Amino acid sequence: MTVRADLERALGGPSAALDLLTDREIDELAAMVDAALRTETATLADSVDAVVSALPWPLRTAAKKIMFGNRLG
User: I need a surface site. Which of 42, 46, 51, 73 has the fewest CB within 10 A?
Assistant: First the structure.
């Protein structure tokens, strides 16, 4: 796959705006989107852990799996 194809997949599909960007700009944008998605995932996982920590210890893992499956690791 190309950087552009990966970026389009991350953005949810093709975008005509990408046609206006140079290859270097697409690379930079792809790196920024990737970093933002990693930060979002980490922040979400931390937030969920904070909420789940209010539950009694034996229920934490089960509640997290029920609510989010394996999406948060």
Answer: 73
